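During the no-cost extension, the postdoctoral fellow (Dr. R.K.) reprocessed legacy sequence entries with the updated structure-token encoder. One reprocessed record is reproduced below for audit purposes.
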Amino acid sequence: MSHPPSTARTALITGAANGIGFAIARVLAEQGVRVALNDVDLEAARQAAASIGPGHIAVLADVSKEEDVGAMVDETVKAFGRIDILVNNAGIGDGGVATLSQSLERFEKTLAIHVNGAFLVSKAVAPGMAELGRGSIVNLGSVAGQIGIPARTAYSVAKAGIAMMTRVLACEWARYGIRVNAVAPGYVHTRLVAGLIATGRLEEGRIRARTPLGRMAEPEEIARVVAFLASDEASYVTGAVVPVDGGYTAFGGAFDASGENSDYDRL
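Re-encoded structure tokens follow.
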């Protein structure tokens, strides 16, 4: 069912049924944006959309498949009349497997969802944004795309690709009024990360020690930076990859970043 265009801004967020994607949907909804929440789990996306209030929709698509992406964008435009904001959030982990043990199949799947997905969805929404003469695309990068993290080959390559795609599209599409930016989160308290901590595959204490702010982020902290980049408050920002990592990538000392076990920051 189509609806007449409204004056409210509209957004399409991929991978939005939970985690950072859902936090972004919730924050944008609080700001009066009508949101289409995409996920490969349609029922989860429907529940997420219902939980943030009326007027939001769920859209099914595997973002690595061009046909799915086209149908998703068409459905969103039919419902909202246009897409003002795109957040390319959909992604998967690579399992944290050492490079010599990582399969080509898993490597290619990781890149397909992150890189191909961001490419396909951005390409699908750009003509509509160009016709309007405005639009904002925000991509989800990672500290893993900025620094070398062992055993994260596929994920790191994917996120580095997202960062460069952000810069290229920003330069290419600026003439159409489309801004393209990215955020690069550090470690975030999501359900996935909580599971890794619970099973001993990730040590939260080490992350805190490596992070100058001494803690992991909450999903909403990432979401609010995304919302800023998507807004008119960031009207002169394009081509930026903004670290939202508590200082993780800025720190290079050979001691705890928090200063708990060193005297470098004692006054």
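The two ends are 63 Å apart (CA to CA). DSSP finds eight helices and seven strands in the chain. The remaining legacy entries will be reprocessed before the final report is submitted.
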